[in-house]
Amino acid sequence: MASDGFSAWFRCAEGCDFRAELAEVVYRCPRCQGLLEVEHDLAALQRRSAGEWKDLFDSRFRRGAWPFGSGVWGKKEWVYPQLDPGNVVSMYEGGSPLLRLDRYGAEIGLEDVWLKECGVTHTGSFKDLGMTVLVSAVKEMRARGVPVRAVACASTGDTSAALAAYCAAAGIPSVVLLPRGKISTAQLVQPIANGALVLELDTDFDGCMKVVQDLSRTPDIYLANSMNSLRIEGQKTLSVEAVQQLDWQVPDWVVIPGGNLGNASAVGRGFLMMKELGLVERLPRLAVAQAENANPLYRAFAAGGPAAHPGPRPAISAGRRRLSELVVEPIPARQTLASAIQIGAPVSARRALRALEALDGVVEQASEQELADAAARADRAGAFTCPHTGVALAALEKLARRGVVKRKERVVVVSTAHGLKFSDFKVGYHDGTLPGVASPLRNPSVRVPATLGAVQDAIAARLGRG
Questions:
Q1: C-alpha angle with apex 328: 324 to 330, nearest 5 degrees?
Q2: Is residue 197 exposed (0-12), middle (13-18) or buried (19+ Cβ within 10 Å)?
Q3: What is the DSSP-derived secondary structure letter of residue 271?
Q4: Which is nearest to 138 in space by CA: 249, 31, 24, 11?
Q5: What is the three-class DSSP state of 46?
Q6: Inter-helix orientation angle 185-193/158-170, to 10°
Q7: 299: how many CB neighbours lie within 10 A of its CB?
Q8: HSE-up of 384 (CA within 13 Å, CB side)?
Q9: Distance from the CA of 146 to the CA of which of 114, 209, 277, 428 falls in 20 to 30 A?
């Protein structure tokens, strides 16, 4: 079924002459084993002017007939145009706030910092943007008679929550593989509550990923991790939405935490598609932030040669190098507070390299101390950030200190999950109990007697006498 003549299909991301329908159970090119990408009929999309696309997207944004008020499905023609609207599984994902952080920006020497709060969504993370597309595609497959028995994922928490919720809404069984003891309680309970089969494996995320890839070799178990490019199509809408919220103006920088690196690829795809279709005239620069304890992409950049990083510890910059030719070697990921990006063998590494190359990208890393302090600093300016967003903020602070990000440049930091999913991280920081982390910005509660005088004394100790 076509949608106003628009169509999309799978193709090999490595350039092989392989093509498949989006309703086929396929994840890799059968010729070279490279990952697939969704390719759109851009010639058909170009029959509408840039102004017409903007007007259409604006008219649907957070309103309109179901499901087009969704931040993803309001851009259906750019995501999965052939999908029968009756098979869309939506939780009105997207439409998340874009907050201007003036106090935080001033503290780190920048004048125009924004936080795209992708965690303000149904399951509390940006994974909803991709999962709505993938589960809708599975619903379409099953309607066509494709024998998909269940959908499965490996996860460090957020992917499992999104998969379980959307599958529950669609009435499709879901199977979740989690690394035992390495995710927060809130992340563990979400898929349990939504009825998924939750399997805790005595391994890390990379070990779970290996098992789920083996599991999905049988076509009746559909793979839901971001190596499946249907997820990327939903996640790319965050780029379009952020520009839309800035009155169709492109920021100078987008900073995003990177683990499995599908999100970095998605951000790039969104901006490149907008430019190709004339909605924007230029591209932002992309900064991918990794935790120092799980930093294979950062290491690949660091090993890229002197041309990539002139001067003492600068940002490692794409410049004019062919980043797509770098090799991201797997590493054993060490424990990090940013547990959702504790990934040593990112499956979307090559996709991320291509996005960094196209958007003149940089990669930076953050230590445990740096990410914890950056999260606390942003919180004191009104945010409530997860540790992964703390990684992105810490990277921004380092880039700003070195002058890579200039004072007047507009920056959008992508917040990938809601801070409430990581309350132990927050409590630990302010109690001063995070292992190996000092808490210079801690703000513990103060116990006082239940008297007016005691309360007044506590206020005076903080604010001075009135």
A1: 160
A2: middle
A3: H
A4: 24
A5: coil
A6: 10
A7: 16
A8: 12
A9: 209
Going by C-alpha positions, the residue among 352, 388, 366, 375 that lies closest to residue 443 is: 375
Polymer length in residues for the chain: 466
Let me know if residue 26 belongs to a domain: no
Query: What is the residue type of 210?
Result: K
| Domains identified in the chain, total number | 1
CA 326-331-335 angle, to 5 degrees, is: 135
Please tell me the distance from the alpha carbon of residue 145 to that of residue 381, in angstroms, as a whole number: 52
Residue 132 resides in a domain: no
Residue 287, domain member (yes or no): yes
Q: What are 48-83's pLDDT values in tens digits?
A: 999 999 999 999 999 878 899 999 999 999 999 999
Is the predicted pLDDT of residue 2 greater than 80, yes or no? no
Q: Which two tokens stand for residue 111?
A: 């004048």
Written as one letter, the residue type at 337 is: L
Give the model confidence (pLDDT) of 354-404 as tens digits.
Answer: 999 999 999 999 999 999 999 999 999 999 999 999 999 999 999 999 999
The answer to whether 70 touches 95, Cβ cutoff 8 Å, is yes
Helix axis angle, 262-276 relative to 349-358, nearest 10°? 40
Q: Give the separation between CA 444 and CA 441, rounded to whole angstroms.
A: 10
Say whether pTM exceeds 0.85: yes
**269 inside domain:** yes
* 254 three-class SS: strand
CATH code for position 369: 3.40.50.1100
Residue span of the structural domain in which 260 resides: 98-123+232-431
308 has a pLDDT exceeding 60:
no
146 class by beta-carbon count within 10 Å (0-12 exposed, 13-18 middle, 19+ buried): middle
- Crossing angle of helices 262-276 and 237-245, in 10° steps, is 60
Distance CA(150)–CA(164), nearest Å, equals 11
